[in-house]
Design brief:
Elements (H helix, E strand, L loop, with lengths): L6 H8 L19 E5 L3 E7 L2 E6 L1 E5 L5 E2 L9 E10 L2 E7 L2 E3 L20 E2 L4 E4 L1 H4 L5 E2 L4 E2 L4 E2 L17 E4 H4 L8 E9 L1 H5 L7 E9 L2 E4 L10 H7 L4 E6 L5 E10 L5 E9 L6 E7 L6 E7 L15 E5 L2 E5 L16 E9 L3 E10 L9 E7 L7 E5 L12 E8 L4 E7 L6 E7 L1 E6 L7 E5 L3 E2 L6 E2 L6 E6 L17 E12 L2 E6 L2 E5 L2
Length: 535
């Protein structure tokens, strides 16, 4: 695609050093060193089937003492990735990613510092910058798959896959589900743009760990505009810490390989429940990650296990199957298939962030989490400091199970068993993400099962055997918050044959039914299920 060259503008720009920029080039890095100096523009492309498309502009800066190769029609040029993130109610998630724009021409501008020489259009000179507008980074014919790029070495195949191919409005561009950006569903959410360059000579010089930068976004309806200033050489996970200083970020370098960032934040939520939030960002590790393990104290009560990730799209070969989440004795483990089982499993690959969470009534303390690497290699899985729950009631195990179906809010209802008091023999059932002001009631059984759409409902019944309504079948209302909280007497669990008491060593299963609507017609739905094993 041709680019407009305005010689006068180039000469004026190359003679200008933006505020605070020159200091970045006083001590240049050894070799080529490309960074994202600015994210100057965003293009909104509309939506297809409820998925919205965006593109982000980038200004690349060379902070090194050697030019960066920018050779078109070869594998010796940068590729550019674009990501969008959301922070909402303390949870930081990547909600969209693009394919990669392949660079083809470098201009001699001065976004970061004074350009030291125009060089040629096949190299970005020392101190120079090069602009790729959002419409260019969203040009589908020049976008190639992430799966073809090794971010550690900067190597990629050329010609790249689907080169020259175009499609509908969302094809190859940053894709975000409408439910992730809808102001009506997420009125308090804030959003962030992140861009990253990968190129072979920058990686060979050992300068591939500062190539991502982020900038805040304003939302207007389903569109984005840029706001604030770019945070150079910082991955977007730092936006989480910038918004909440209690967030802990740890840099994890794999010897001889790439870099991850791991963030954690553990704090008291509603009532006596503590929220445990984690993110893992893979900057440039080719080995990628296939599991994340957080130790929990023996007997700690854990519920509401969840995770999120940006979907691969437009023909990328990777699965979009969510990682399994399990409480295995004294640890919570999220994992995908192993590399041996499926090389195209939903591993945490470069330029991508996955988020993980759960709740516990146990207070936080420092733990050593394990980041499980996906591709085989010599280095062992690294340990990283995070916060996690202290020990709890020995033998008491609380886990969620059984996938819920999305309800009319666009979210899935979630149930939590909390405040379990074995002296008073009570617990509380809490449900969130439900439709507002609808009827609901709790169910209990000693049998786990899975029945999709029972009685024509829109959800899944996760109980079997003898099922009773908790608290004698009381009908509750979700109120304006779309949630409910119910006290349960463990001596009186209603069953069809009469109320029974929970016995030591038994396991009970709980779920919440609620009214719902589908296409404007009345129906019903369910939360997921929660399993409680009593000591």
């Amino acid at each position: 695609m041709p680019r407009i060259h305005l010689l006068t503008a180039v000469l004026l720009a190359s003679a200008t050093c933006l505020p605070h920029a020159a200091a970045q080039c006083v001590n240049p890095s050894a070799g080529p060193d490309i960074i994202v100096g600015n994210i100057p523009s965003v293009t909104n492309y509309g939506q297809v089937g409820g998925t919205y498309a965006y593109a982000l502009g980038t200004d690349a800066c060379n902070l090194g003492d050697q030019p960066v190769l920018w050779v078109a029609s070869t594998n010796q040029h940068p590729v550019i990735g674009q990501n969008i993130y959301r922070l909402e109610a303390g949870r930081f998630e990547q909600i969209g990613q693009s394919w990669l724009e392949h660079g083809f021409t470098a201009l001699p501008l001065s976004t970061c510092c004074v350009c030291q020489g125009a060089g040629t259009t096949s190299a970005l000179g020392v101190g120079c910058s090069d602009p790729y507008g959002s419409s260019l980074n969203g040009s589908q014919s020049g976008l190639g798959p992430r799966s073809e790029v090794n971010a550690l070495t900067g190597s990629f195949m050329y010609p790249f896959g689907a080169q020259g191919q175009t499609g509908n409005a969302i094809y190859k561009r940053v894709q975000v589900a409408g439910s992730d950006v809808d102001p009506a569903l997420r009125p308090t959410a804030t959003y962030y743009a992140e861009c990253q360059y990968v190129t072979p000579d920058d990686a060979a010089a050992g300068n591939g760990r500062n190539n991502a930068s982020w900038r805040p976004l304003n939302r207007s309806g389903f569109n984005f505009q840029l706001t604030g200033t770019v945070r150079r050489m910082e991955p977007a996970v730092m936006a989480w810490q910038a918004a909440d200083p209690s967030v802990d970020l740890q840099m994890v370098d794999i010897p001889g390989e790439g870099r991850f960032w791991v963030g954690s934040n553990c704090y008291q939520g509603a009532g006596n429940t503590y929220r445990y939030e984690y993110v893992v960002f893979n900057l440039n590790s080719h080995r990628s990650a296939g599991s994340f393990t957080v130790p929990v104290g023996s007997g700690a009560q854990v519920s509401g296990l969840g995770m999120s990730f940006p979907r691969s799209h437009s023909g990328e070969p990777y699965d979009n199957v969510a990682w399994s989440a399990q409480l295995l004795g004294d640890r919570v483990v999220w994992s995908t298939d192993t590399f041996a089982q499926n090389p195209n499993a939903n591993a945490l690959r470069w330029g991508t962030t996955y988020s993980f969470w759960f709740e516990s009534t146990n207070q936080p303390e420092v733990k050593a989490a394990t980041l499980g690497l996906f591709r085989p290699g010599a280095e062992a899985d690294p340990l990283v400091s995070v916060c996690g729950p202290r020990a709890g009631v020995p033998g008491l195990i609380v886990t969620n199970y059984c996938a819920a179906s999305a309800n009319s809010t666009g979210s899935t209802g979630s149930i939590t068993a909390r405040n379990i008091d074995l002296t008073g023999y009570t617990l509380q059932l809490e449900a969130t993400n439900l439709p507002r002001d609808v009827f609901a009631y709790s169910l209990a059984s000693e049998t786990q099962d899975f029945t999709p759409n029972p009685g024509g409902s829109s959800g899944n019944l996760c109980l079997g055997g003898s099922i009773g309504r908790v608290v004698g079948g009381a009908i509750l209302n979700t109120g304006g918050a779309g949630s409910l909280l119910e006290d349960v007497d463990l001596n009186l669990i209603p069953q069809p044959s009469g109320a029974v008491a929970v016995q030591s060593g038994s396991t009970w299963y709980f779920q919440i039914w609620h009214r719902d609507s589908l296409l404007g017609l009345p129906t019903s739905n369910f939360t997921d299920g929660v399993r409680v094993r009593f000591p």
